[in-house]
Amino acid sequence: MAGEEQSDKKQGFKLMGILDIQNTPCAREAILHGAGGSVVVGLLYFLATSRVKKSFDMGFAGFFFTTLGSWCCCRYNNAMLRIQQRVIQEGIKNKVMYEGTSVDPSCKPKADEKSS
After folding, report:
1. CB atoms inside a 10 Å sphere around CB 70
2. How far apart are CA 72 and CA 68, in angstroms?
3. Per residue in 63-116, pLDDT tens?
């Protein structure tokens, strides 16, 4: 019994049985932004035109495009962050490896010690 409860907690919440929101990066934020975008777009369109069905359609389109835009921006930012972390890790590794040697980039030769 206890093992089944723990495995259920680790699975997380799946949206439409496909997307695991808890374990997928950016999914939760994208869905929340899409929900807010759909409310705003649908409400503004309804206030402008007073057409209920068309407002629902515009709200759904607002959800789709807001979710998609938020998802793409978040994934792009995560990818850029991973690239920056990889570059910093390589730099730290090289700093530790070359520290105190003749190829150390932080030790610049002095102008007085130039060989003529």
Report:
1. 19
2. 6
3. 999 999 999 999 999 999 999 999 999 988 888 887 777 777 677 666 555 554
Q: What is the DSSP letter of 20?
A: E
For residues 96 and 87, what is the distance between their CA atoms, to the nearest angstrom? 14
Q: 14 near 21, Cβ under 8 Å?
A: yes
Q: What angle do CA 83, 86, 92 make, to 5 degrees?
A: 140
Torsion sign, CA atoms 29, 32, 36, 42: positive
pTM of the model: 0.66
Name which residue leads in pLDDT, 12 or 112. 12
